[in-house]
Amino acid sequence: MELRKLKGSSFWWMALGMIVLVSSWSGLAFMKRAESSNPATRTVALAQGEIFQTVGLLAPILAALLTSRLAVMESSERMDLKWLSLGQSPMGMFLAKLVVAGCALTLCFVIPLTWIPLTASAQGFHLEGSLAEYILLPTLIACFSSMAVTTIQLALSLTIERQAIGLGLGVIAGLIGTGLAPMSMPGLGWFFPAGISSAASPFLFSASSDGFARMTLVTNPWMKVLTSLLACIIWSGISAFIVKVKEPDR
């Protein structure tokens, strides 16, 4: 039913534009790295790590835009009453919107996180370890992080009438989330959805002897994946509770 609501909607064009935007930026960043002749900067981990860092910055902002669009469509011209009359419960609408918006947001990051390491490996970038891990680990964490961000932004969009508040919070969350790692405080990211990608980052950043940045996988990256999944489940439960409590007041 949720897909029928979005038939002919600009939501899909918005989602497609976001996918193209993130993929284009990732491609340009990779092209710049591929042009380097220094072997220290031509590593799969460094190329993949740069793309992964965009999750913390862009995911809250893009999620705020997508969920705001869904919320506006739902309430326009008393459409919310129409879908309720057809038997769709408020919690059912919330979960359906979460799946649609979460999948659209996840694709924005999964696509570049998949083709960047494949392209880098094909172009002779240095690879330490398994290529499958360099693809699977970041994409799973990006997926769980995107879903966590989407669920809280969706709850805000559905319970707060002024959509500008949710959008503003998304921008602030993105700036804070992406700034935790440079401030050497990634652990604080567990306390809010936008920081999950920083807290659960599978990459270990260090400087090589020649002064260039170096990235490798952490010792036990799968624990990062499981913890990010747990955080996603917790934030989804919190968001569902907020929607359930606020719905009778609408």
Q: What does the model show?
A:
By secondary structure, the chain is mainly alpha-helical. 70% of the residues lie in helices and 4% in strands. It has nine helices and two strands. α2 runs antiparallel to α3 (44-75) and α6 (131-159) packs parallel to α9 (221-246). The chain starts with a helix and ends with a helix.
Distance between the termini: 22 Å
Order of helices and strands: HHHHHHHHEEH
CA-based shape: globular
Relative strand content = under 5%
Q: How much helical structure, as a percent, in the residues?
A: over 70%
Read across the widest sheet, the strand sequence of neighbours is 1-2
Biggest sheet layout? 2 strands, antiparallel
| Total DSSP helices | 9
Structural class: mainly alpha
- Which residues form runs of ≥5 with pLDDT under 50? none
Number of strands: 2
Average pLDDT: 84
Rg, rounded, reads 19 Å
In short:
The protein is mainly α and 250 residues long.
Keywords:
4% strand; mainly alpha; 70% helix; single chain; two-stranded antiparallel ribbon
List the helices and strands and how they pair.
Layout: H1 2-5, H2 11-34, H3 44-75, H4 79-85, H5 90-122, H6 131-159, H7 163-179, H8 196-199, E1 203-207, E2 213-217, H9 221-246
Antiparallel strand pairs: 1-2
